[in-house]
Structures are given as C-alpha cells and as structure tokens.
Amino acid sequence: MRVFSRQSRTIVLVELAVVVIVAVAAAVAVWWPDGDPRPAARTNAPQSIDLPGLPDSTAPVLMPGRPGEPAESRRANEMTPAPRASYNNADIRFVTMMIPHHEQALVMARLVGERSGNPQLKIIADRILAAQEPEIRTLETWLTDRGLDRTSGGNHQHAMRGMQSAEALDRLTAARGADFDRMFVSMMTDHHQGAIDMAGEVLALGVDGIVNELASGVVVEQGAEINRMRQVLEAAR
C-alpha cells in the first residue's frame, strides 16, 4: 500500500484547485468570447419623451370693462370659470305653464266617466289622470326646491298652447254620449298638441335635466294618446 505524506497531499490539492480554475475560465471564454460586450442589465426606468409645447395657461385674457372704462387684461390662471347654470328661464317658463295646463287636462278627463258611453275612451281618461296628477306634484316640487313658485314664470296665460276657453269647457260639461266623445277627443287633442309644442320648446332651449326628462315624456306619452283617441273615435262610427 502506497502512503502519501502530508506534504504530498497538499501538493495534490493545490494541483486540483488549479485545474478547476482553468476549467471555469474556459467555460467563461465560451459564453462571452473576447471582444463581445456583456449584455447590459435591464432597468424599468422610463425613457424621457420629448413632447410638443403646451399652450401657456397664463396667456392674457381680455376682460371688457364697464361702460366708459377700458378693457382689462388678465392672465388665464387668474380667472375663475363661471358656474354652469342648472336651469334657465326656458325651464321656469315650461314648469310654470305646464302646471295649469295639466290641471285643465284633469278637469276634462274627470268628465269622461259620467258622460261618455265608450269604455275605451274611459280607459284613456284614466291614464291621463294617473299620469298628469303625479307630474303636477313633481313640477311643484321642482319649483319649491329652487325657491320659486307658480308666478316665477310671469304672466303667460296667452302663451299656453292648447288651453280651452271657459265657454268650451261649459259646452263639454253639458254634452253626453257620442256628442261628448267627439268634443272631448277634439279638445283633448288640441290640448295635448299644445303641451307637445311647449315641450319641444324647452327641449331646445332648457338646460335642466329633470325638466328635460319630463318634457321628453310629454312628447312621447301625449303623442301616443292623441293617436289612440282618434282610433277609438273612428272605431265608434
């Protein structure tokens, strides 16, 4: 048996270490050949982008002065934008006119039950009552919430399209049967068409969302009721 001295074992270990170092160096040479740069480490830092110049928010704004005074120049960032109005005169006008307009429709609709012999016409009258009574309350609440009342729109009795005269209402009240049906359909058709015209006006000029929704409903519902009343009257002939 061959016996190695301590010195011999040390020499062998050193030789093995040298072999390992040489092998590692050779492997590195294979993966990164001489002259090739090592890949740069990736980063998540965003690269800068050149953006086109933005308009100057402090550009001067010319403000008209009072009568006889010169205009004043101010920077835009010194100006406070005016708040957008939540409602305007067109909205007030529509609401204050539609309340008495609806009320007259209710007066005529309540006459149908005792004076008409047409069951289909009675159904239409009941629908008018069921729709316009709650709408009156909604319109009144709209005024109250804004510190307004029925007089806020001014005197516009002459401008409420489709409104029937007191004499016409008296004739309708005195009529019965088929005569009543013809008068009712004719008067209520004119009345509904007047409401549709007023709704179209506020849809074009108003800005309030609630009023817009109410006016849109008037156009759709009362237009459908006009067609239905005419069909009922034609079928009864």
UniProtKB/TrEMBL annotation:
Pfam families linked: DUF305 (PF03713)
Coiled-coil features, chain-numbered ranges: none
Residues covered by the DUF305 domain: 91-233
Keyword terms of this UniProt record: Membrane, Transmembrane, Transmembrane helix
InterPro entries: DUF305_CopM-like, Ferritin-like
Chain residue ranges for the region called Disordered: 41-83
Domain of life: Bacteria
Membrane-spanning residues: 12-32
The protein's name in its UniProt record: DUF305 domain-containing protein
Source lineage: Bacteria, Bacillati, Actinomycetota, Actinomycetes, Micromonosporales
